[in-house]
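Below: protein 1.
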Amino acid sequence: MKDRYIATVDLGSSKIALSVARVTGEDVQALYYRETPSDGVRRGSIFNPEKASKAVRAAISAAEEELGVKIRQVVIGLPRCGIRQEIATASTERSDAYSCISQDEIDAVKNMALDTYPLDNEEEEEMYGAVAQSFSTEDAYHYSEADVVGMPSRSLEGEFKVFVGKKKAVRNIDIMLEKAGVAEAAKYFLPISTADAVLTPEEKENGVALIEIGAGVTSLTICQDGIMRYYCAIPFGGRNITADIKYECGFTEVLAENIKMAFGACMPERLQNMSEKTLQIRDEADGSSRQVTVKYLSEVITARVKEIVDAILFKIQESGYADKLRNGIVLTGGGANLVNCGNLIKQMSGYNVRIGYPRARHITVSGCAGISETSAAASVGMLMLASADTHIDCASEKKGGSATSSRKAASTADKSPAEPARETLFGEDEIEVVNPPKKDGKAPRKPKENGIFKWTKKKLDEMIGDLYDGMEQ
């Protein structure tokens, strides 16, 4: 059986993540995952295709050289920010009321709903994705897609949630790929694929909020009854935290980012032994040195994280699903690596919180460094979706290539590796363990008075405070 190759590109504000997997029949093996500096991308969208194409081309060339393959196409994610969601419906009368509804009829109703949905401005907007919410027949109302298939009925009606974004953002992706000399294999709406990669079926069934903290965008995806019910994003993330450290401590952006990665933590009151220690930073250019305590650094980080989390928790309340999240919150993305970030969210919201590592079901990831980290969640989601599409084949082996060298590993590696343990400079006694979601399906206790259920009396601009401070223009 001929091998297929899947190559995915996750365009972030701070990094470009390129992953490559080989598909042999039902077996999928991750061969390559690398994060390289991004350029020409802001808040998850390309604003300079020329700069972005050079960064993507460099990432592709590095993968080709290491794997011995020629990458002709890539699977790429659509922008996460600037998305609005709407409801689209469609119905049809069936000629035979006693025949069973087929999957083809479900797909036809979905296409009908999307084709007839009126965009506010077709020249500037397009649909990024759509998720079926429920189906109804003459005898059954608000059933899932799986339950409706096989029912006899004279009529069929579907309700879909459509996600609409900017057409220019998609066009910039096309321009970037053309300049990078690579074709598009598929474009995916990342919230759908990321949720599949990180969440368990039980979490999606019982109700869960997935918060993904990236460099330029923090997004919220809510699932309930096994269906994606809500999505939104705000244009703030780890880069804003870095900017705060830069301005408050007088560091360069690169130094501020490195310090955040090495010493970044929320909740200074929980750091105990490390909180009073002082970092001495020496400037090799002029020989001068600066000092900052770990406690003050944590205070700067915590202030910004609180504002970001406040805005996201307000969106949870606004969604109407705040009291239906029986499995609480799952935190993923690069920002999930901040020490005590999950504990801070738990304290502010009253929900149980767990860190969401990509669950690479049906994908062998052993030996592929980095792909099991929280920052790789979107890449793993795209690999999972693309590997199921037999028409996608992104690369071919060069003569004498090295991509076949890892075949043996594919047959022996564990397809469900344990969640990786992240190295940290803080001791175990200085980090409070975040509780995993309950397995009994019971709703969490009502949050404290300073939790989300008190927010309905507040305006959004009062809650997020100085969130927009430090935002790039």
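Below: protein 2.
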Amino acid sequence: MARFVDPFEEMDRMLATAGTRWRGGVMPLDAYEKDGQYILRFDIPGVDRSKIDVMVEDRVLTVKAERSMEDTVGANWMLRERPTGVHSRQVRLGDSLDVNNVSADYNDGTLTIAIPVKEEAKPQKITIETHKHEALEAAST
């Protein structure tokens, strides 16, 4: 028997394990549910798409990004606030999510990950029948 899954409870559980900092800087995250999917949007500006890895293992989504500043080797720094190196963030995914059909898109410094809700976890409308119960019919005759 399928159990009812509250999407808001699922989102709360997912965000509680998301963490808010990455080594060397912040990897901001927005998360919301829309059209039967959970959407996660990470701001990762200045990172080449080839330097981003997205993985799911044991229902944990991991985003790793490597930002390098190779063009500044030998520079005399006056101010350096942008973090470099490998950074990661993890989000625990709930049982109601289909981790086998995760998709990712990177555009203008934003990584968008879409995770569909499993069909069996979606709310199901129950049809109400209008038939009389046979025992009630027999008693009335």
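Strands lie at 29-34, 37-43, 52-57, 60-67, 85-92, 103-107, 110-116.
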